[in-house]
Amino acid sequence: MSKFAKITLLSAAVATVAVSVSTPALAGHRHHRNDAAIIAGVVGLAAGVAAGSALAQPRYVEPDPVYVERPPVYVQPEPAYVDEYPAAPRRTYVNYDLEPWSPQWYRYCSDRYRSFNPRSGTYVGYDGREHFCTAG
Prior knowledge:
mainly alpha; 2 domains; two-stranded antiparallel ribbon
């Protein structure tokens, strides 16, 4: 409601109350029943209620629910293409005729087996046992 309408309604309510109070005084004589005063009071009360309702703060009205479609559960990923592949592993040719305890044998066994023990010449295999490193 606009500000002008609120002020107009409020001033009409105040004027109605003022008229209802002054009507019996202007009549100059008393009646046993003041019907006009009662009617004016009821009209003033109704105008006051209307003015109070118009000036009241607006109330929150919850909006209607909005349906939002959910995305599908499974979304297939787009294929990934690789332009650059790593270089192919080089084959290293080892002379398997290495003598045990030689420097080449030590180098070969320590490169080949992670668990190589140079003191005993053994490594721990996948079976959990120690095996002697043979290069041939």
